[in-house]
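As noted in the main text, all predictions were made from sequence alone. Below is one such record, for Glycosyltransferase.
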Amino acid sequence: MRLEIVICTHNRSWLLERTLRSVARANAPSGSHLQVTVVANHCTDDTEAMIASLKPEYPFPLRLLREPRAGKSYALNHALTQLKGDFQIYIDDDHRVDTRFLCAIEELIQKHPSYKIFCGRIIPDWDGEEPQWIHSEKYPVYPLPIPHYDLGQGPCEIALDDRLPGGGNLVMAKEVTQQVGQFNENLGPSGHNLGGGEDGDYVRRALSKGYKILYHPAPIQYHWADTERLTLGYLLRKAYSRSRSAAYIQIQQPRLPPRFLFTKLALNLCQLLLPLPLARLRFYLMRSASTAGEITAYTGRYRDAKSERKHG
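Prediction:
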């Protein structure tokens, strides 16, 4: 069996090196051939030089692809045209993998041949110095500044109405990519902006075609805990961007924003007029930003549909 790791990156060579070295330290799967493919997405830093310096010592074949168009979906689609593995293992460039990560994936594929898509856990790589409000249950921060995907200690099948995995810890058979096709290039981050949704959209399309997803806690990736993500400005930008992407994907019938969203936004904004503790203020600011993202999604989806009809 041929396994192929796919990592898309943009101008974060030092983080990418951290990710690649964690893969090199992981226990190698005993019955599979492993290759690592890095897609340099509009990179202008020393990413290529770093990869070249790693190649001689790297324990697995290390391949570099170049995608000049800025945008993760462009990079993913470039990778799809060059895939060699029977299964693709997607890792983000700001993750590190557990030492049993590769062996756990090999075991899942071998033990569950009826599944063609697998996902595992993504755990924030906290160091204990993060502010405690990030863990608040009374005023939860959502979307999380550091992704956290954990469906428990037992395996389970994921349905369309469940919490879907992102692309950071996803394993797909080549058959799936051949049937589902390309990633939506209107979605996903470009450069280091906070766009998203390209992975969730892809998973939804795969489920709609009848593929099943098996979650298992054994394959673990740890997400870099960037302290810059804990600022209020970042939280608001992410709340807006990710809500916009998620809503855009789920809109079945293009239309102008429904009235209840404006009511929801007004109620959240009214809360800000009251004297509030900082945690509650942060909570309602993020709710307002998320709702604004939903409204923008409806507007954008409606505008795109009109443009498609006009040029269709």
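DSSP finds nine helices and nine strands in the chain. The radius of gyration is 20 Å. These features were considered when defining construct boundaries for the mutagenesis experiments described in Section 2.9.
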